[in-house]
Amino acid sequence: MKILVGAIGHESNTFTPFLTRLEDFRPRYGQETLAPPIRHGAFGGIVTTLQAHPDVVLAPSVTAHAMPGGVVERGAFETLKAALLEAAHDVDGACIFLHGAMRAEGVDYAENDILTALRAKLGPDVPITIALDMHANIVAETARTVNAMVAYHTAPHDDTYETGAKAAEMLLHLLEGGHLAMGFAKVPFLLPGEKAETSVGAMREMMQLVDDLEAQPGIVSASLMNGHCWADVPDIGVSAVVVTDGDETLAQAEADQLAATFWARRADFDFHTEAYPVDEAVRVAMTASESTVFLSDSGDNPGAGGTTDVTAVLESLLRQGATNTVVASIWDAESVAACIAAGVGHEVNLNIGGKLDTRHSKPLPVTGTVRLISDGDTYWGGVRAPERLMQRGPTVVLTVDGVDVILTAERQSYVDPAQFHSLGIDPLAYKIVVPKRGYLTTPLQAISPRSILAVSPGVTNCDVRQLKYRRVQRPMYPLDEF
Ligand SMILES: [Zn+2]
Predict the structure, then answer these.
(1) Distance 179 CA to ligand 1 centre (A)
(2) Per-residue DSSP letter, 357
(3) 3-state SS class at 90
(4) Spatial CB neighbours of 82, under 8 Å, sequence gap ≥ 6
(5) What tens digit of pLDDT does each residue of 175-185 get?
(6) pTM for this predicted structure
(7) Where would I find the beta strands (DSSP E) of 303-424?
(8) What is the residue extent of each domain of the chain?
(9) Could you tell me which residues are beta bridge partners of residue 69?
(10) Pairing relation of β-strands 364-374 and 347-352?
(11) Backbone φ and ψ of 429, nearest 5°
């Protein structure tokens, strides 16, 4: 059996003021996509599971993952789509990872566009299964186009490999003559991921329902996707998907039931990290009794498309006299160049940040001392192996009135203590650590004595009513109360 495999991942924020380019995806094509290391992530789960089957031959197409950001350039999207379709030749099945929240210029539902084209090319009888991110925004047509889908069950995402493996198992089940039926239902709810962590609160209870459902006979898989709310496209929201071993009525009834329960509980989804407006969040962090507080700048979260150049939290820290603080990070290539030109130990006057997201931020005038200049190389997870090397471009640490500001020449996401260590920074030596994140990633959470969340401005503002949605279907909760 020849099976098409591939992965295209992007979470596209329509409020982000720049486009995502082909090079941002670092695409690999054909056999290159199967070169080690691929044994992690959803694509790793797909490939490893299929390769374990004696009769399977893989038809590799493309793997491409870009950091969440602005809408994808149309040409880049067409290139990736064409690479996937080109390999869809003479295959018996297809198993693909797609994030589920990608948009391209002129294409509101990019994954649906890809899958519709794939279905047209393969015809109605070749099975297609997909693995998705939990923040996927699925439209009904996709559910009619593919045979089965499954999404991550955890946020932060700790089950990516297992999700890919599940998509592959469902495909093998179909190829071996088994049956699957899928039910799909949607909830009109713009839900920030920060209010839907799976380890706490309403989302934890919803995922318990999913687990209970999956334990029932006849149910193959169930998924709840809370969507990517920072996209101004008409058909958006939370999706419920149930896959059964062939019973269509049961699949649809259970998907409808999950969606109805989600809707009934919509007011219960709330922050489970302490959350405050910016000034209050800074004040709480400054007066905390804990030795270190992680203060998330949630409105400018690159993990959901933030520019990382919104200066509101830094401005508040400096105005309120916070010291022993590190801010990770502000994207400002101009200021990085100025710091490198000045050299370590020298004083500089700069207007930092506020150059990209001019709607929610403005440059902040500061006088600081250049403390460190780095090439930005980091070994992921602290493991010094060649495949663990991340090269993220020139990075400097600028000290302004007791606040260490990490300035980067490229947009960065500080998700792992190793990134701080590579700059000679021990985050736990600071009173306040400000990552531009929503909820903390698992490695940061693991070392954080206390985390609080600033509901801050930016393109990932967790108070979605602060953003200007023009195209989403109405009524839409919580833009409308109904
Ligand atoms: Zn996600």
Answers:
(1) 29
(2) -
(3) coil
(4) none
(5) 999 999 999 99
(6) 0.94
(7) 325-331, 347-352, 364-374, 377-379, 389-391, 395-400, 403-408
(8) 2-268, 274-461
(9) 12
(10) antiparallel
(11) -85, -5
